[in-house]
Design goal:
With 88 residues, this protein is mainly α. The chain has a single domain (2-86), classed as Serine Threonine Protein Phosphatase 5, Tetratricopeptide repeat, CATH 1.25.40. It is 85% helix and 0% strand. It has helices at residues 2-33, 37-50, 55-67, 71-86.
Length: 88
């Protein structure tokens, strides 16, 4: 019985993480559109912390890193985005 209860908590937390990740990605895009690139990068980083293999969050952060002049960081994020996209 205890294992089932733990599983329900895990599934509930997974749903919360997905919603939070979507929120951070949406806020990141909004910040980027308004020229607030540092804030956008923080939002995308928060999304990545919630789901470390989310290719979209890495892609979004890479585009913002270009605007911030962090070309090497952008290359790294683009590579991670591609690798996670291909592993699906």
């Amino acid at each position: 019985m205890r294992k089932v209860r733990v599983m329900k908590i895990s599934v509930k937390q997974l749903h919360i993480n997905i919603i939070e990740k979507l929120f951070y990605n949406t806020e990141g895009v909004k910040n980027a559109d308004e020229g607030r690139f540092k804030e956008a990068a923080k939002c995308f980083t928060n999304a990545i912390e919630l789901e470390p293999q989310d290719s979209l969050s890495y892609f979004n952060r890479a585009t913002v890193k270009i605007d911030l002049g962090d070309i090497m960081g952008a290359r790294s994020d683009f590579a991670l985005s591609e690798s996670y996209q291909l592993s699906k």
